[in-house]
Amino acid sequence: MFFSSLSVQFTSHRFSIAWSRVLPTGGTDNINQEGVKFYRDYIDKVISNGMEPMVTMLHMDHPVALEIATGGWDYPAMVEKFVVYAEFLFKTFGDKVKYWNTVNEPNMFCSYWPGLAPRENGFHRCVHNIIVAHMQAYQLYKQKYAPTQNGKVGASVLMSPGMPKTTQAEDVMAAEVFNQVYCGTVLHPLVYGDYPPVLRYLTDKLQKEKNVSEAILPTFTDEQKAILAGGATDFVALNLYSEFKAGYSNNPTNPNMPVLFKDMMEEIPFVEISGTGGFSKVDDALMKNGLLWIWRSYHIPIIIAENGLGDTKHAGVNDTERAAYHSANLRSLVRTIKEYGVEVLAYYAWALLDVYEFSAGYSGRPFGLIHVDYKTGSLNRTLKNSAQFFIELRDTGRVPNILPPDEGPSTSASSTLSSGLLLLAVGAMRGLWL
After folding, report:
1. If DSSP codes are grouped into helix, strand and coil, which group holds residue 182?
2. 67, 87, 306, 321: which is the annotated catalytic residue?
3. Model confidence over 166-215: pLDDT tens digits?
4. Segment 116-144, tens digit of pLDDT
5. Nearest to 334 by CA among 52, 12, 3
6. Region at 211 (left for phi over 0; alpha for psi -120 to 50; beta for the rest)
């Protein structure tokens, strides 16, 4: 969505290119021309509809032949393979694609798929190799393609903001350490040239306690540190769904710890988390807390690459709660930009259609604004009620104030944020896109 003096316009479309669809065995020695044509046509269609394409290069899938050959992201051999793939994309589609996101949320991806032959501490090796691959692809683009293509390359991270459960210093510290370990693992090197010092301290301490010879956290070379410290990303592609409370404890139990955090909790044994929102909690503090932590920590432009509600209650097309979720987050986004000067380039709702979710299939927690009939196999598509929220936003230039069903009726348009208020954010954001 883009804000102008007259209206709100939907001006961008985010999608991923499947590595295996264009390079079935991973390299440019075997190009699937039909796959290339599919994406050329797709990109042309996006542009012809007045939208800017934003492409994610790797969203949890790469050729199985490559996985077998290298062992996956747990191994450095994947770095070179990815850079070859990235250059193929720049060369093939870069004349029309100006926004590139390299690997989707590696801090989540590496928790699930370190490779077919994972080793102990594979999480950190996987993230490390992705950071190096991103750095090399970024450097390649800036040196070879940016002068003529004038695009941007960004890095992705999943964030579930850990907020202090009290104002006590130890709880504030616990929340900050959690965020540094979970998000900073990916982002800190791309801005400052190395991992967060607290992460290095904690992993070295754990290594001594476990009495293992190999470092838990890999080390960048001096050359890599110098390149990274010079800046290795044009924006943060932030995936933001829910937050929780974090506190200090001498004996944390964490009975409801999300599986997403399993690889890091051994490194921060003093952090106890509670109140996790999952994918279905309407929280008007989420967007502000996530944006401010990223902005204050790294001060580089942000794209909200994913933000959405998973329908765990199976409301189907009658998804008022999803409309309330987007209403709360968009109103919070506008206020945060206006009050704190955060530079937000774009906003993408996850997702346009009900799609396959990696840990929930087609029916566990659908995110789409459009219902897809997977149950009968017809694949018929039906606009959900939440789609009307975005239609009204487009037509009126206002963010409708939709309350969750259990909080009473939604307010009228007269109490929504007007386009005049939204326009105050234009100086800080070039576009708010779906």
Report:
1. helix
2. 306
3. 999 999 999 999 999 999 999 999 999 999 999 999 999 999 999 999 99
4. 656 677 899 999 999 999 999 999 999 99
5. 3
6. left
Number of domains composing the chain: 1
382 beta partners: 371
272 tagged catalytic: no
Beta partners for residue 15, in sequence order: 55
The answer to whether position 427 is within a domain reads: no
Q: What is the DSSP string of 66-106?
A: HHHHH-STTSTHHHHHHHHHHHHHHHHHTTT--EEEEES-H
Whole-model pTM above 0.90?
yes
Q: Which of 333, 336, 288, 325 is nearest to 402 (CA)?
A: 325
Q: Are the C-beta atoms of 11 and 431 separated by less than 8 Å?
A: yes
In a domain, 55, yes or no: yes
Q: Is residue 374 part of a domain?
A: no
For residue 381, tell me if it sits in a domain.
no
Q: Give the residue carrying structure tokens 């003096």.
A: 5
* Residues contacting residue 281 through CB under 8 Å, at least 6 positions apart: 242
- Please give the structure tokens belonging to residue 174: 């616990």
Set 52, 67, 87, 105: catalytic member: 105
Positions of E strands within 31-179 = 52-58, 99-103, 152-159, 162-164
Task: From 290, 239, 279, select the one nearest 101 (Cα to Cα).
Answer: 239
Per-residue b/e over 74-89, b at no fewer than 16 CB within 10 Å? bbeebbebbbbbbbbb
Tokens linked to 304: 């909200």
Distance CA 124, CA 128 (A): 6
CATH of residue 272's domain is 3.20.20.80
Asked about 105 being catalytic, the answer comes back as yes
266's enclosing H/E stretch is none
Identify the helix (H) or strand (E) that includes residue 143.
none
Number of C-beta neighbours around residue 253 at 10 A:
9
Residue 280: domain span: 12-307
